[in-house]
Design brief:
The structure holds two protein chains of two kinds. By secondary structure, chain A is of the alpha+beta class. Helices cover about 20% and strands about 35% of the residues of chain A. In chain A, helix 2 (about 30-40) crosses helix 7. Chain A is globular and about 65 Å long. Classes of the chains: A alpha+beta, B alpha+beta.
Chain lengths: ~375, ~130
């Protein structure tokens, strides 16, 4: 199994370690609910070093990224990041990712750990324009520091005014005495904060500095379990659950990152444009349980008579709402907000309601 | 690891406390620790006669769902209604406030197949 540079620190902190797509990662430390609420109310630290980082460089870098991704890279200013996805040439999704516009002719793509090899092969196979590609996944460590106390915590460790880094932008500067740390105002929790990228050899120094800085706010390490419940409360997609090679960005509600303007030519543009204009037969929707029960991945969604109308892609008990929440693909006729649907749980039909995401309002 | 001597245990990490012809059933300290935060207990079998090994309910943690099995055969005469609102009692107090069901045994010989604390501990350490 692969290990991140924080592996021993997780074990020292009492992390329950599991195999996550070939990486030995902590699934929880103090308990998923406690960690969840720590991020919602204070500050928590996630090791997300298993994520993949690719550099795309050279005069044709922008051209390649534009072709590979649904969002419009030409809209980015230097120092901006963008959520986007790789369409797979058959209407599905290879992966969802972040594109960082680092400098002219230099982009960083941050991809899911589960897809590093698949994405890399895809990138290489589509690189007809001859952009320079580098897979830096094994050299870069990444921490996500999330929660309402994240900025105050991190501010102690850098001269950059963190309040002046807008959401989805980043700077590269000294952090905790380490040069060239990418400080990115992004995250997967909805609770605000930053993600930091740096070379592996600085991992321990940065980790310890952050925990010392956050001590007064009760900073805690957070595992993959709470990472999942936090993202689900916000209705953020998880690749492999809510989106995959068989789901289109339009079905998945990712129309907002699929830009059909003239200067954005990308793989599957024509096909997805047809879906957008003519509509799709199923849609990814959030739903909340009305009856008591917890929806889980792959449970069936049904109408009141038990006819199958869709399938759950993600589900959990929301620690903030204390009720079952989920996402799933629903036949179009049942996808209107407010529609009552049923989840088949252990051969019973339990009532739920289609709702807008995020499930939890943090404002 | 808390393993009371007065209880009997199953391979499925349940504990059994015998009181005359009835038993109280819950899950062990080890089991609750492995599951993590328990958020829902569903027991729909109250009043039913079930054989040993049959599923009597499910326990759901944030990430996982586990079936609960009858450690002995008999009638489910009661379930712990406090768990409806406070499933976390199983995490906090697995052997007392976190009990799940009471069974009227149909055959007390079923108890012979259960482990004592020492045997259960040995199984965990194996």
């Amino acid at each position: 199994m692969k290990k991140t540079s924080f592996n021993q620190l997780h074990k020292d902190a009492g992390g329950k370690m599991v195999d996550f797509v070939g990486f030995e990662m902590p699934v929880e430390f103090s308990g998923i609910k406690d960690e969840h609420l720590t991020v919602r109310k204070g500050v928590g630290v996630f090791d997300v070093s298993h994520m993949g980082e690719f550099w795309v460089k050279g005069p044709n870098a922008a051209k390649l990224v534009q072709k590979l991704t649904t969002n419009d890279v030409s809209k980015l200013s230097k120092g901006q990041a963008q959520y986007t996805c790789f369409p797979n040439g058959k209407g599905g999704i290879v992966d969802d990712l972040l594109v960082y516009y680092y400098e002219p002719e230099k982009y960083m793509l941050v991809v899911n750990a589960s897809n590093i090899e698949k994405d890399w092969k895809w990138l290489v196979s589509q690189n007809s324009v001859g952009a320079e590609l580098e897979n830096a996944s094994d050299d870069i460590s990444q921490l996500a520091i999330q929660g309402p106390k994240a900025t105050t915590t991190l501010q102690k460790l850098t001269k950059i005014n963190l309040n002046e880094i807008p959401y989805y932008t980043f700077v590269t500067d000294q952090f905790a005495g380490v040069d060239d740390v990418i400080i990115s105002a992004t995250g997967y929790t909805g609770s605000g904060g930053f993600e930091l990228y740096f070379r592996n050899e600085h991992a321990e120094k940065i980790y310890k500095a952050i925990f010392e800085a956050g001590q007064e706010f009760g900073i805690k390490p957070i595992g993959l379990g709470a990472r999942d419940t936090l993202r689900l409360e916000m209705g953020f997609c998880l690749y492999g659950n809510d989106i995959d090679d068989t789901t289109s960005p339009i079905e998945a509600g990712l129309g907002w990152i699929t830009k059909f303007n003239d200067n954005n030519d990308f793989i599957d543009k024509d096909l997805l444009l047809v879906q957008k204009s003519e509509g799709v037969t199923r849609k990814l929707r959030g739903f909340e349980m009305i009856d008591r029960g917890i929806p889980r991945h792959d449970y069936e969604l049904a109408d009141k008579d038990g006819h199958v109308i869709g399938k759950v892609t993600s589900g959990t008990q929301s620690p903030m709402l204390n009720k079952g929440i989920g996402m799933g693909y629903l036949d179009k006729e049942y996808s209107a907000f407010g529609t009552e649907i049923y989840v088949k749980i252990r051969n019973r039909l339990l009532k739920a309601k289609v709702v807008k995401v995020p499930f939890v309002s943090l404002l | 690891m808390n393993l009371p001597e007065n209880l009997k245990y199953t391979k499925e990490h349940e504990w059994v406390r015998v009181e005359k012809d009835s038993v109280y059933v819950g899950i062990t300290d080890f089991a609750q620790g492995e599951l993590g935060d328990i958020v829902f207990v569903e027991i729909e079998t109250e009043g039913e006669d079930l054989p040993k090994g049959e599923t009597f309910g499910t326990v759901e943690a944030v990430k996982t769902v586990s079936d609960l099995f009858m450690p002995v055969g008999g009638k489910v005469v009661e379930f712990n209604a406090a768990l409806e609102d406070e499933p976390e009692l199983i995490n906090k107090d697995p052997y007392e406030k976190g009990w799940m069901i009471k069974i009227e045994m149909s055959d007390t010989a079923d108890l012979d197949d259960l482990m004592d604390a020492a045997a259960y501990k040995a199984m965990l350490e194996a």
